[in-house]
Design goal:
Layout lengths: L5 E3 L6 E4 L6 H4 L18 H4 L22
Antiparallel strand pairs: 1-2
This protein binds zinc ion (ZN).
Length: 72
């Protein structure tokens, strides 16, 4: 299966999980700005990076940028 059929690891860009058959519009909106709803936020690691990294969820600071506006 092609790399673009997978959500890509937020550390190395490798295959994190198969997402080609996820049609939830909130998920699709994470990469398709034509979706008419607010995207959900997803971060994931591939099996290799999961051995050395972790995903941490925390509350945004007041005034933080909205979803999908990573600038760094
Ligand atoms: Zn990785």
């Amino acid at each position: 299966m092609a790399l673009n059929d997978y959500y890509q690891c937020d550390v190395c860009g490798g295959k994190a999980f198969y997402d080609a058959n996820i049609y939830d519009s909130r998920y699709v909106a994470t990469y398709d700005p034509t979706e008419g709803c607010d995207p959900i936020a997803i971060k994931a690691l591939c099996p290799s990076c999961a051995k050395t990294h972790e995903v941490i969820v925390r509350e945004k600071e007041a005034g933080a940028a909205s979803l999908n506006t990573e600038t760094e």
